[in-house]
Write a structure and sequence with these properties.
The protein is mostly helical and 341 residues long. The protein has helices at residues 6-16, 23-37, 68-76, 83-93, 100-107, 111-121, 135-142, 144-159, 170-190, 195-204, 207-215, 217-228, 234-242, 246-257, 261-269, 280-291, 307-313, 317-339.
């Protein structure tokens, strides 16, 4: 492998400097630069002079177009969840009550959903190519909870339509969400916690973006126009232009729909993880997905890394690099299975 040139190193350092200026951000910046320099691919997608020169690019000073009250009123008018998803959520919340007959009864009503579950189960994400030929196979090989969670993921994705906002690309949105889901699953695995729940939390963590774009397409388009003219992270631009960000809007939706507590916490706290550490892996997964360009929307800003969350996770290159490698190794096929199945 050829030695990287100084411009490449400088570009990576400048890009990853967006993580922040504290010691944890500097440590992760160094790790990500080392990781990228050891990959076979070359220089970053954007030329060095297009990258953000500072850790916190400025946001515009404007009168916010929305407020929390307006968003809450719009969410209150949204339709209830489809019956199948409501039933799946009950099982997601009370996993101890699941049994094979309940799962098959719920899923057998939607053969399209079953087919997508089988396609995902046979993808590289699970490493079971060709082994899963039926729903019973999936339950026997992956486990009841994994299949149920997978069904919930697919059903939720199908229930959220493309917003009538020209600049909002639903496909890009889900690609980034898949990257966060994979990364969260791997990070949680390092701490021997339940990976399937982490995947769902990652897949739906940005659901507030869809809701804002659905309920307020013109206002959200204005925010996107500002975003395209800067290199600020989206949640910062939302706060500046809309007066509310997608984590806050997503938390409102979670309450409206009665989403499980752990999922609601991931939605609300992925940019500002609480001190109890419950959302640390989700927060870092979102940061890493942005840092590795798994959000092809044009805005390459990296969200700020919370120092306390990073310290609590206590990661080094030995543990982090395999997580990043598995993300990049399974990302494309998982996207194909989930998004185009």
């Amino acid at each position: 492998m050829t030695e990287p040139n100084p411009e490449h190193i400088a570009a990576l350092n400048r890009r990853f400097a967006q993580l922040g200026e504290h010691s944890g951000a500097r440590a992760l910046c160094t790790m990500l630069t080392h990781y990228r320099l050891h990959q076979p691919e070359t220089p970053p997608k954007s030329a060095p002079d297009t990258l953000a020169p500072c850790a916190s690019p400025p946001v515009p000073s404007v009168t916010p177009l929305l407020d929390a009250g307006k968003v809450q009123e719009a969410i209150a008018r949204m339709p209830d969840l489809p019956p199948l998803i409501a039933e799946l959520l009950k099982g997601f919340t009370h996993a101890e009550q699941l049994n094979i007959s309940v799962v098959t009864q719920h899923l057998s009503t939607d053969q399209g959903l079953v087919l997508r579950i089988l396609r995902i189960a046979n993808s590289s994400f699970y490493g079971l190519s060709g082994q899963v030929k039926s729903l019973d196979d999936a339950i026997q090989i992956l486990g009841l909870r994994a299949v149920y969670t997978l069904a919930l993921n697919v059903a939720m994705m199908g229930a959220l339509p493309q917003p009538p906002c020209a600049g909002f690309n639903l496909n890009y949105f889900w690609q980034h969400s898949v990257a966060v889901a994979i990364t969260a699953r791997e990070l949680i695995g390092l701490h021997h916690q339940t990976p399937d729940t982490a995947f769902t939390n990652g897949l739906l963590h940005d659901i507030g973006q869809i809701i804002l774009a659905l309920c307020f397409p013109d206002e959200y388009q204005t925010m996107l126009d500002y975003e395209n003219a800067t290199s600020a992270a989206r949640y910062r631009m939302e706060r500046a232009v809309l007066g509310i960000d997608h984590a806050q809007a997503g938390a409102m939706l979670a309450r409206q729909w009665g989403l499980p507590e752990e999922l609601s916490a991931a939605i609300a706290g992925h940019h500002a993880p609480p001190d109890d550490g419950s959302v640390d892996a989700m927060h870092l997964a979102d940061v890493l997905a942005h840092a590795l360009d798994k959000c092809p929307s044009g805005n390459r800003a990296i969200p700020h890394l919370d120092e306390d969350a990073w310290m609590r996770l206590n990661l080094d290159e030995e543990h982090l690099f395999p997580v990043l490698t598995r993300l990049e190794g399974s990302f494309e096929e998982t996207c194909k299975a989930l998004l185009y199945g």
